[in-house]
Amino acid sequence: MRTLPVQPVLAALALLGLLGFGWLAVAPNRLVSGTALSSFAALHFWVAAVALLLVAAVPISPRRPALACAALLAALGVALWASGAAAPPLLEGMPPAARVMAGPGFWLFLLTLLLMLTEAARPAAALRRTMPLVLLAMLAALWFGGALDALSLAVEYRARAPQLQDALLRHMLLSAAALALALVLFVPLGWWGFRASRAEAVLGTTLGLVQVVPALALFGALMPLLGALLRAVPGLREAGLETIGATPALIATALYAGLPLWRGIVVGLGAAPRDLVEAAEGMGMTSRRIDWELRVPLGLPIFLASLRVATVQCIGLMTLGGLVGAGGLGAIVFEGMAQFATDLILLGALPVILLALFVDGVLRLVEGRLARWRQ
After folding, report:
1. Highest averaged pLDDT of the listed ranges 41-45, 125-129, 170-174, 212-216
2. Number of domains into which the chain is organized
3. Domain boundary among 152, 182, 202
4. Which among 125, 152, 179 is the end of a domain?
5. Which of 150, 175, 206, 284 sits in a 20 to 30 Å window from 15, CA-based?
6. How far, in Å, CA of 243 to CA of 324, rounded?
């Protein structure tokens, strides 16, 4: 059965966002939707350049993925730069609280273009590893170069820069702490699961059940459980544990990261071919030497892949910590939702996405270097 080609469909959706919906909106303040403007009214002749780059990337994507990625990045860069340049003239004569916001067409175009980039980079391992970092570098250049300063999101950022920086730092620290807790808990359990098949079955089922529980429900359920535990053992409260705040966020996030870490250890340790293990045993190597000199080196790519998944999972799930008083970027997201302020929601959500992309890209590069070193 023939499958529908992905890139033409995504390109059609991107063109629909570019040409069929409001691209920007001019509003008297950040709480109202404002008057929508088409891409033609906002970007003028740059619309044609963006559309041509987008369409040109489709036929060359299967044969020359690097060139297709370059065309898509250029289309994204031109669209963002032209949108930022269009904002100042639109604000002339408007009150100080007026904003130029990104419209639904802008976000549809951005989402589908990112999907097209992912699909274009898929055939080439080097592109898959480097594309997140190249994309982040381009976005950073536009942001810190001032090209987007007049857009509503940048205005919101300048108004809340200290709060956002503190939230980003706390989010990173909480995510790192949750990952460290997951490593301490589940790496030894993974080792145990590899050694004992009955333990593997029990642990696998238990961790699988944790994944089934909705994240929000688990965060909420931990609060009364921790409250009961702290009442029963008051010394834990003196040690720094708390019913709300960082404690339930760290525990819940670590539990969700447990399955990929545990599974990575079990599968990685079992990656060594049986004949090599038997040859090592025949040479008189002890079980410990076989583990550290054979199983661990051969399973290292699997370990790194599971670590990458768990790290990205911790960064994303820690956003829900804002609901239980842990702070971080999730607090900004939920504050924006309470105020119905789209820009504030995005101000908290976009750094989470970019941070996850950055970490994913860095760990993919490490995996690639390890693979080349092993060859």
Report:
1. 170-174
2. 2
3. 152
4. 152
5. 150
6. 9
Tokens representing residue 259 in the block: 């399955």
Cα–Cα distance, 203 to 207 (Å, whole number)? 6
Q: Look at residues 193, 307, 305, 179 and name the one whose alpha carbon lies nearest to residue 249.
A: 179
Query: Which tokens belong to 287?
Result: 């079980």
- Residue 375: band (very low, low, confident or very high) from pLDDT cuts 50, 70, 90: low
State whether 41 and 134 are in the same domain. Answer: yes
Contact 117, 73 (CB under 8 A): yes
Q: Which domain holds residue 10?
A: 6-152
Tell me the β-bridge partners of 258.
Answer: none
Measured CA to CA, the distance from residue 34 to residue 151 in angstroms comes to 14
Same domain, yes or no: 330 and 184: yes
The CATH number of the domain where 344 resides is what? 1.10.3720.10
The Cα 183–Cα 257 span in angstroms is 9
Tell me: do 172 and 204 sit in the same domain: yes
Dump the DSSP string for 15-77: HHHHHHS--EEEESSTTS--EEE-HHHHHTTHHHHHHHHHHHHHHHTTT-HHHHHHHHHHHHH
Nearest to 46 by CA among 65, 14, 19: 19
Over the stretch 179-218, which tens digit does the pLDDT of each residue have?
999 999 999 998 888 888 788 888 888 888 888 888 888 8
Query: Helix H segments across the chain?
Result: 6-20, 39-43, 46-60, 65-91, 104-121, 125-144, 152-159, 161-195, 197-212, 215-232, 235-238, 246-269, 274-282, 287-290, 296-317, 329-339, 342-374
Return d(Cα 109, Cα 54) in angstroms, integer. Answer: 10
